[in-house]
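Figure 2 data, in text form.
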Amino acid sequence: MPEYLSPGVYVEEVDTGNKPIEGVATSTVGFIGVAERGPDDPVLITSFGEYTRSFGGYVANRYLAQAVEGFFQNGGKRCFINRVRSQNAAALPATIAALGGMTVSAIGDGIWGNRIAVKITNPGNNDPNLFKLTVMYFRDPPPVTGTNLTVDPTHPGSRLPANLPNRREPTLLEVFDNVSFNPNASSFYKRQINGLSTLINVDGVGGPRPPNNGTENTAPIVSPSTIPFLANGADGPALTLADAQATLTAFEKIDEIAILCCPDEYTPGIAGITTDLINQCENLLDRFAILQSDGTVAAPAGHFPPTPSKYAAYYYPWVRIRNAANGTDVLIPPGGHIAGIYARSDITRGVHKAPANEVIRGLFLDPMDPTRSFQVQVTKGEQDVLNPRGVNVLRYFPGRGNLVWGARTTTRDPDWKYVNVRRLFIFVEESIEEATQWVVFEPNDEPLWARVRRSVSDFLTRLWMDGMLQGKTKEEAYFVKCDRSTMTQADIDNGRLIMLIGIAPVKPAEFVIFRIGQWTGGSDVTEV
């Protein structure tokens, strides 16, 4: 209660309106899989270029990079990436400690860190208390002399004829100039490098200044160089299902994720992660899993979804893309491309629209045989068998292109057989949950019930007006109850506020039927 203890004018703000509910994002994807390199924790990625800077390029017989590329090609905007790595203690990041008081380590575990070279030279402003750190990563090991890089590719003299045979262009180059070893300086190396570099982390408490180990660009090149590599990085034992499960578990803390996908779902060692993808979705109730066929060339009629679930959809067959490394075509699982279509459909139409009858972008196109974009071309007769099972088929249609031609979950429950219905409910439930946290510990009485009813009703009205709910009127589209009919006095005494909400989701027109017959036109015949 406000206090009025002395004469005067008092101005007070009174909160009388309802709290608006904002819809949550539905197109953020969480990908797990095997990457060339990268950090050990999930990273937000907003473009394929950003992915390659953080996680590298394509890996033979692994599909994470291709899936992320397909995701962005098909309209995806953002995703979280967590690479599957060994959780064994034998998996170690590469390090180097003989740099004054500074220790440099690869940003993640693995032998890939042993191909990082670090060069220290004078800073650009020539301040003797500062230095420049140049970080070079080589996907393929370059020529070395002892443990040092033979030719420094960042030095202009590396292009002299005598040095060219041993010169290798770094796959990724990072430069941190005018860096201080003073922990009190704003340019202290830990502040300038950690969190910004996609290759290394640095540690230390300050000076002394790391000694130069590279040749200044203004001085003649020294070959072999004295630039060292990080060392002792190790991958650890072969990947196991437990490693993939630990990688997936990290996504539980990221509330923004709405879709899960593992492009390496059937990779030897981590096969079996499908069940864990579904379990996370069913336990958290705020995300949806995209599953893929295993890539075996079998009769289409032999395909079944792996597990019935209201929180997963299964897609078949694999898709063919162009290998950017050598220009050939290669088959990959379709999950990344499908996730991009989910995102594109959500952004352009809304989560209520089934992510089907959508063009799949980024596929290999053979003008002599357009059906080669897929591993197999499924016929209508074969899809007549697959569709009722919950197998969403990807098909080529002449004149229309490569399309997603199915929108079902893997469940047998007819109430939840459509992907868009399940995802619409996830959207509504998550939006209401996040926007009504203010209700907790408010006085549980009629005024509070009325405010919550108004908030939820206004939110559902907006969805109905946007075409997400069916019905000619609001009353046909939804109902909201929060009064003495939904809770007893015992519920109130126990601190419970219970609201009953019903919505009528729009269903996709999966079967379009035109019934046509002959009509005589109602002609009359008369005698003249």
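Caption note: The chain has three domains: 29-86+238-416, 95-203, 442-528.
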